[in-house]
GntR family transcriptional regulator
Amino acid sequence: MTQKLKPLHSIKVEGPIPAHLARSVIEETLRSAILDGRLPCGTAVRQQDLADLFGVSRMPVREALRQLEAQGLLSVVAHKGAVVAPLIQGDATETYELRILLESEALRQSIPLLTSADHERAAGYIEELEIEHDYTEIGRLNRLFHMTLYSKSPNGRLLRLVEDGLNEEERFLRFNLEAMGLGKISQDDHRALLQAVQQRDTPLAVALLEQHLNRGVEVITRYLASPAAQNRKTAR
């Protein structure tokens, strides 16, 4: 009889981890495994298993799990402990309403401080999206494009909240973009947004961003209500 592999089998640890880096290494390793699907939704993430895997005490593991919970990647379930959080579900409208508020403010703060190098970097992500066919990479490039536009906001806490929302969207797109029938994220939106940013037209840029995100919530809400989405949810 074939022994069933544990969910953590896909995580490889290279050698001993210095004590002062343990928390950050564990956090980043788990974060990557959750985002790329090696740790699927609902997977229990037990402290002792992680401590054994990384060769550390449970203290840095506990700290890393707290950070991932704060980022919305883990949930604490009664009698089960920490589990990998679900993808965007029926609260997509509320999720995007909050994202619009946070991202609009980050963009508003960032635009006056962005440099030509920032503009070129954002344009580069648009060009990469134009030729990319891998859905995992499309989600990543979309996140990087938006974060580039927000990156000069001086409010670090705001940026962390914004990135948490983009991480959630990236994770959702990674597993659902193909089924949603969207071969590409709207490039017209991205190009118009970047042009307004380059012209430092903040009111127009914010309006275009809100339009872009509202279009996203319409597509996702429609998809979540479709038979295809329900079948995928049941199959997980």
Summary: The domain at 7-84 is CATH 1.10.10.10 (Arc Repressor Mutant, subunit A). The first strand starts at residue 74 and ends at 77. The chain is about 65% helix and 5% strand. The CA atoms of residues 42 and 84 lie 5 Å apart.
